[in-house]
Amino acid sequence: MSKFIYVYHGGSKPESEAEQQRVMAAWGAWMEGLGAKLVDGGAPVGLSKTVSASGTADDGGANPISGYSMVDAANHAEAAKMAEGCPIIEDGGSVEVAEVLSM
Fold first, then answer.
1. Cα–Cα distance between 30 and 95 in angstroms, integer?
2. pTM here?
3. Which tens digit of pLDDT belongs to each residue from 63-100?
4. Hey, how many other C-beta atoms are within 10 angstroms of the C-beta on 57?
5. 74, 1 Cβ separation under 8 angstroms
6. What is the DSSP letter of 45?
7. How far apart, in whole angstroms, are the C-alpha atoms of residue 95 and residue 71?
8. Residue 29, by phi and psi: left (phi above 0), alpha (psi -120 to 50) or beta?
9. CB 95 within 8 A of CB 8
10. Sequence-ordered alpha helix ranges (H) in the chain
11. CB count in 10 Å sphere of residue 67
12. What domains appear along the chain, each with residue ranges and CATH number?
């Protein structure tokens, strides 16, 4: 097994308490469905800054990160397939899937 990081981009912020509960339930169900392959449930993240040779931008770049998780999978294809059910996709966001390499 290899480790893969899911980097979540986009999605929208729930506008009501009921919507927040629905979103949290969807995330909980999806993560529960990953079972033992979920290594680290991660967390949502706040406003990001992008630091480059030209300076620091406060907008998080063109596609700011909204959270992350880490999973175990046999290969990149399996990790990507597992990400297909992520609730952020239904909410207009995306999941970047990258293998965590051993150093």
1. 14
2. 0.89
3. 789 999 999 999 999 999 999 999 999 999 999 999 99
4. 13
5. yes
6. -
7. 13
8. alpha
9. yes
10. 17-34, 76-83, 87-90
11. 18
12. 2-47+61-99 (3.30.70.1060)
DSSP string covering 80-95, please? Answer: HHHHTT-HHHHTT-EE
User: Which residue bears the tokens 């912020």?
Assistant: 13
Amino acid, single-letter form, for residue 60 = G
The Cα–Cα gap between 91 and 36 comes to 25
Q: Residues 46-68: pLDDT tens digits? A: 888 888 899 998 877 677 899 99
Q: Is 10 helix (H, G, I), strand (E, B) or coil?
A: coil
Q: Are strands 65-73 and 38-44 parallel, antiparallel or unpaired?
A: antiparallel
Buried b (16+ CB within 10 A) or exposed e, 7-31: bbbebeeeeeeeeeeebeebbeebb
Report the distance separating Cα 64 and Cα 47, nearest Å. Answer: 8
DSSP 8-state secondary structure symbol assigned to residue 18: H
Q: How many other CB atoms are found less than 10 A from the CB of residue 82?
A: 21
Q: So what's the pLDDT on residue 11?
A: 83
